[in-house]
Amino acid sequence: MSVIKRKYICKKDEEERFGLTQSELKALLHALDQSLLVAIFDREGVYQYVNSKFCEVSQYGKRELLGKDQSILDSGCHSKKFLEKMWRTIISGNTWKGELRNRRKGGSFFWVGTTITPFLNGRKPDQYLMIQTDITKYKMAEERARYLTQYDPLTGIPNRTQFNDFLTHALAEAEKHQQSMAILVLDLDRFKMTNDRLGHTIGDQVLEMVAGRLRKCLREIDLVARMGGDEFAILLPDISKDQDLILLTERIFNTLEHPFQIESHEIMIKGSFGISSYPNDGEDAETLLKNAELAMYDAKKEGKGRARFYVPQLHKRLHQTLKIETALSHAIELEELELYYQPLVSLRTGEIVGMEALLRWDRPGIGLISPEEFIPIAEETGLILPIGEWVLKTACEQNRVWQGNGHVALTIAVNVSSLQFEQEDFVEMVALVIKETCLEAHSLKLEMTESLFLKNTERIIERLHRLKDMGLKLSIDDFGTGYSSLGYLKRFPIDSLKIDRSFINGIAENEDDAVLAKTIIALAHNLRLDVIAEGIETEEQLIFLQEHQCDIGQGYLFSRPVPSENAGTLLTKKSYRRKETKYW
Ligand code: C2E
Ligand code: MG
Ligand code: MG
Fold first, then answer.
1. What are the pLDDT digits (tens) for 261-314?
2. What is the predicted pLDDT for the residue at 580?
3. Which domains does the chain have, with CATH numbers?
4. Which of 446, 507, 534 to mutate to test the pocket of ligand 1 (most atoms within 8 A of CB)?
5. Distance from Cα 432 to the centre of ligand 2, integer Å
6. From the CB of 559, is ligand 1 less than 6 Å away?
7. Does ligand 1 lie within 6 Å of residue 161's CB atom?
8. 286 CA to middle of ligand 3, Å?
9. pTM exceeds cut of 0.70
10. Is the N or C terminus of the chain more exposed, i.e. has fewer CB atoms within 10 Å?
């Protein structure tokens, strides 16, 4: 019989002393066995009693433990000082409480929250009762949490926090030893598209592989971290010559050149790099990182797959962008926005069948600003959402006016940015605008760029179907500039595609453009899609497109985009088909 039972259970008078019956005691012991590790050891630390929970957690049998020294479970993790203090406490008759990391028979570790109480038998304690709870799970979660504050769980490399700590430390060292250093910020280009097209599992693998490749091409003293999403940062301490920095940057750059082979996919990844150096481009961590990021954004703007060194002028440019941003945020309320309209002409009949609404910003003191300049900023800041809604409303109202004037079949084409389309309530917003403006849905055509379709997620397809079911017309804008194949378009409920004007530009002279345009028209017709050609400027281009049965044309040859009153006048002309023109 165990020590506990011998000591406390057997005698009837003991029963009375504890106020417990035999069966209650049994239940109590059973409960203890379920939840707590209990052991009794003597003053030498030799086990005299262990309960079943103790055996279960430590993986030792009772016999393997009884009579053995406590150190059998020692993990070697606690310092001599720690253990000495524990023993001093209990030998002097006090209770010790703390956490112990022990080793199981199988070698793995477990954590126990521990209370050791001495049995005071006269002067000196000769036995100790140890009660423990298994806190391994909690400790592991705690360790994981600690790891996560320092490392990126996906790639296993340091995260932003650790990067910042290292950077601060490295800067102090550089200052002390009068050394230069650099940081490089890398953002993968179009990574979101890879993610959307191939799924997150593959996207994650790409990130892991990028981290691996970056690590491989760095020196021992360099540090690469994942700053979040598809952004990485590299710390390059002790770089004294510009030449070394350029060489190292080239190596990092080249490491991404080779395609990433994942499952059956061969993925090409490019990155935009921004570089800043200490002490020239900043003397503290925050400034250096900010400047490297600024240079990286500049590299992205210039076209992808580039590296840029920080130069102070970048701040000026950023400042300008900020100014545009602030002014743009007030543009709607100050009524500085205006819609211009450009006719869409049937190439068969010469009649205006629609108008495309094109946004203009009349900025006081500056004049008309092209959408190409401010729409990217509006997209970056989210201002495109209220602006886009205003455009849609204004264009629909305008079309109602024109239809009321007798142009009943006129379609209004409105450009929609991906960001707008991806809003949860986009379809509802369009439905409301149609309802409020009393426009028939089939008189509204939404133009979306190819990049949206490349995402090809269920959500996007479902949304397109809902718009289509409402009766709207849907068109792909700037077709040919992305990577979509025509076959791919079968999945989308669209009505038309618009060949990008860069192809139309060359059709009369450039054989490649001509072949491309012809092929797009023929294949699109096969898919029962209407084809629109934008940017028609010359008669030759028009004739070519007519010969190849392009359905609709748009371009300076017919009219530039004009304010609504002028567009109204164009409509009253009814047709571009005049007797004297040879092309109709
Ligand atoms: P887009 O939708 O492809 O519009 C056609 C652009 O080509 C217009 O430029 C138009 O003025 C121009 N264009 C038309 N015919 C010719 C031509 O014969 N030759 C040349 N060289 N250009 C021609 P715009 O108005 O500057 O608009 C540029 C882009 O800005 C639009 O391209 C569209 O993507 C975007 N955009 C315009 N308005 C809006 C809007 O309300 N919302 C959104 N999200 N984007 C808009
Ligand atoms: Mg358009
Ligand atoms: Mg276009």
1. 988 888 888 889 999 999 999 999 999 999 999 999 888 876 667 888 999 888
2. 47
3. 1-31 (no CATH), 36-141 (3.30.450.20), 164-311 (3.30.70.270), 329-573 (3.20.20.450)
4. 534
5. 22
6. no
7. no
8. 41
9. no
10. N
Query: For the segment 464-498, what is each residue's pLDDT rounded down to a tens digit?
Result: 999 999 999 999 999 887 666 666 788 899 999 99
535 Cβ closer than 6 Å to some ligand 1 atom? yes
Residue 431 Cα to ligand 2 midpoint, Å, equals 20
The count of C-alpha atoms lying within 13 angstroms of the C-alpha of 426, restricted to the half-sphere facing its C-beta, is: 21
Question: Angle at the Cα of 342 (from 339 to 343), degrees rounded to 5?
Answer: 140
Residue ranges with CB less than 5 Å from ion ligand 2: 415, 447, 477
For every residue of 286-349, DSSP letters joined together read HHHHHHHHHHHHHHHHT-SS-EEE--THHHHHHHHHHHHHHHHHTTTTTT-EEEEEEEEEETTT
Please tell me the number of the ligand nearest to residue 357's CA: 1
CB-ligand 1 contact for 478 (6 Å cutoff): yes
β-bridge partners, 308: 274
Tell me the pLDDT tens digit for each residue of 218-264.
Answer: 988 999 999 999 999 999 998 878 788 888 888 888 888 888 998 88
Confidence of residue 2 (pLDDT cuts 50, 70, 90): very low
Residue with CA closest to ligand 1 atom 15: 555
